[in-house]
Write a structure and sequence with these properties.
Glutaredoxin; 5 strands; 6 helices; alpha+beta; globular
Length: 144
Amino acid sequence: MMKYLIFVLLILLPLYVVSEDAPEIEGIEDLQWKNRVILIRSADEDVLAQSLNDSVSAIDDRDIVWFILNGAEVTSNYPGKISAKFAANTTGKYSSAGAKVILIGKDGEVKRAADTLALDVLFATIDAMPMRINEIQEKKNNGD
């Protein structure tokens, strides 16, 4: 039953995330100053996507766009089109980090690299960033 649900979600996810509002992206640099990025290299995209989708509220609150790369295949919560060149561009640029999970800040710099996805650790890392602290303060001041 669970495998069926995951399969249905993965089939429907691309229909949900494709949007006219977001431009097509060719690489992580297209998101600079707009989003933080979690970049994951793994063949186990079903389980990882489910874990990320289970934390959608926390991910959205932190302006995170995530990408799971499995060769040339890309799974993501990005709301627009992803170029066919994206996986090659991204893998080439971030392969030197050597980690399977990479957190990239809004400034485009690698903030954390790890071998496993630990969302609580990534969220804590983000929440300690000066830009995130300012975002939280602005939300409090605006009554959000």
